[in-house]
């Protein structure tokens, strides 16, 4: 557990970067600090491992004041990932990953074995081990950065916008890899980002900071989206927050309709429906087809593949999106193995949403969350 | 100071030939380095060749190059042309890389935009690439200027008169004031060259001043 | 003329004896090595300190502005001032070595400083954040990354010392400069030109050797492995997958370091004597 207790950082020129921050990052959870630039999120993160000294207040790691620890030794016990990875250009990927173990005095063999294992875990091919960072793409460099931070198996990780310098597709992959790792490893993580979507996706707990380094709100992401504490937070979490908050509402009893289906190669002659769903041999949806236009055998080229597919066990957001994105306006719903279970219509999902209760309207910790207690 | 007061005329004459011996190679060197640097950018195979060659030329000690010039050029040993050519060689050696790197420092998107607007060949070079490379080239030119002023004084050892004569003469006749006058004159000259190049750079890159004001 | 120079260069009389060409080459190398070694002992730690702490940058500016002082003037002034204070051969040796040392401190200092300064701030931040102490950051991160520029500075220093030691024959220093200075005085153009050729070759060989050292000790990660083709700065393509094709593309776009080294003449950006 990391605890900020009334922490303030003021620079000699008078600028206050962090203003009386009190916040707890619970053990084994991801706490995301999010806010616009100048809100002190990075400063807060860097005060945890004393890269920046707080002006006042204390930060404790499992109850121990970090100000009283030996700086270098404390840092070796905290994984540290930064925006541009900060890999050492003169060392190979493998040696980069082994940095902290070597600092801790592990022998060469143990360090190398551990480093190889980590490269595999973050999804890098073994032949990359002997490359130099300049020979990797940005996304690969970030993976190495994560592997390097995990090398000595630290219980705590600090991550400063680790995925913001890569393109959206790569970022999405990196986030998934990261969540996978975390579900296995259960580290105590403080994660800084300016991207509210990233915060919502990754955070067990999200702390929104405002310019001037004041904590605006801290809570779990679902609650943050539905109950922003003031205009600033409401603005920051965005205009489509209602829609995005649906991702935290599971979709139970969807009114599924059975769907007439075709497989590739079947004839469309005689069909009167404007749109028909095409599936493969195992009834996994492939796309929609317009019989009037095909007038003969269904070919792979004739398929409209634009619609998203939602899982029956997924969220209301998934179901609604499937309906909205489908050319036939019928949302395709599958089970966990990807087999078609039926379709759903947009208005039906909407009435489900209307009949569903808004979660936790009067949650007792709403105020406590505002004061920064959060999940603690 | 008495020594200086008694010899203003000599100092002035020597300074004039020093300006000539250091300045002409600077201009010639730039004129030769521009097409070479451009070629190094244009044909990437040429780059290592040109850079290595200029590196080799630059390793030759100045006194040695001065002394060898007559064999290469077929000139007389005391001919000032020897010094001008030697200094031009050094200047080119230093500037080829600078020009190539300066042209290379022009952002790719700017070049693409220029091409998209129909700038072609020479017009793109003189209208877009060269102006944007001016800061880097000017920096190289300043290094060359300071270096030239210092090296030219060595020519007094082979008997080509310029400010270096104050140094050799002062040493030969134990006149410390003369040596100091020579040093000061060289430093002043180097500063003047430096200032002129800086001024030229500012005049050629008005957009850089605009940026400074805004930030 | 060229024939007689060649004859001079190849005759055994030229090479033999205490003041023969062989002995002169050794002398010249010895002065150069001595001066660079003394200057390096002063300038390398100083440059590391300025670069690491960011303090006293004016030292580098000061050292660089000293370059405007003409070498010849410095040499003569110091020789007049220090020469009479020593007896025997030291009267020639000490002033010259002092000047040589003073001359090559700036290129070494600014090479080291620029090298450390150019280390990716993110790498330095990561080093501290992972728990390296000050000296560990210097030894494990800053020095290896600054090495190309540190060695460029040293190469530049050697060239300058070899050139200036030649001129220093005028104030009585031994070495190859004797052939040039004495030859000019006596009008013996053959030995003058012969000496000039030998000292030029010496400079080339020393620079070439240092280039080899540079190649051997600098991490391939800093030079992009293949020096020469990596010079054009190209932005790394981003991978959309972590698979083969994207990696290959990334390989093509490998970027050299800022101010990367070159085969010969990684020294070109500093003034010479």
From TrEMBL, chain A:
Q: In this protein, which residues make up the domain named ABC transporter?
A: 2-237
Q: Which residues form a coiled coil?
A: none
Which stretches are transmembrane? none
Instruction: List UniProt keywords, sorted A-Z.
Output: ATP-binding, Nucleotide-binding, Transport
Report if keyword Cytoplasm is assigned. no
EC numbers for this chain: 7.6.2.9
Domain of life of the organism in this record? Bacteria
Mind telling me which InterPro entries this protein's record contains? AAA+_ATPase, ABC_transporter-like_ATP-bd, ABC_transporter-like_CS, CBS_dom_sf, P-loop_NTPase
GO MF annotations, alphabetized = ABC-type quaternary ammonium compound transporting activity; ATP binding; ATP hydrolysis activity
Q: Which PANTHER family match?
A: OSMOPROTECTANT IMPORT ATP-BINDING PROTEIN OSMV
Query: Family, per the entry?
Result: Belongs to the ABC transporter superfamily.
What's the protein here called?
Answer: ABC-type quaternary amine transporter
Q: Report the source organism.
A: Knoellia aerolata DSM 18566
From TrEMBL, chain B:
Which GO biological process categories is it annotated with? glycine betaine transport; transmembrane transport
Q: How does it sit in the membrane?
A: Multi-pass membrane protein
State where the protein is found.
Answer: Cell membrane; Membrane
| Assigned GO CC terms | plasma membrane
Task: Tell me where in this chain the ABC transmembrane type-1 domain is found.
Answer: 15-197
Q: Which SUPFAM superfamilies does its entry note?
A: MetI-like
In the record, the note on similarity to other proteins reads: Belongs to the binding-protein-dependent transport system permease family.
Q: What is this protein called?
A: ABC transporter permease
Protein source organism: Knoellia aerolata DSM 18566
UniProtKB/TrEMBL annotation, chain C:
Matching entries from PROSITE patterns are given as: ABC_TM1
User: Locate the ABC transmembrane type-1 domain: which residues?
Assistant: 25-210
Alphabetical GO CC annotations of the entry are: plasma membrane
Keyword Transmembrane helix recorded: yes
The cross-references to SUPFAM superfamilies, in alphabetical order and at most eight, read:
MetI-like
Residues annotated as region Disordered?
228-273
| Membrane disposition | Multi-pass membrane protein
Cellular localisation: Cell membrane; Membrane
Q: Which family does it belong to?
A: Belongs to the binding-protein-dependent transport system permease family.
Q: PANTHER family attached here? A: GLYCINE BETAINE/L-PROLINE TRANSPORT SYSTEM PERMEASE PROTEIN PROW, POSSIBLE OSMOPROTECTANT (GLYCINE BETAINE_CARNITINE_CHOLINE_L-PROLINE) TRANSPORT INTEGRAL MEMBRANE PROTEIN ABC TRANSPORTER PROZ
Name-wise, this protein is ABC transporter permease
Q: Organism source for this protein?
A: Knoellia aerolata DSM 18566
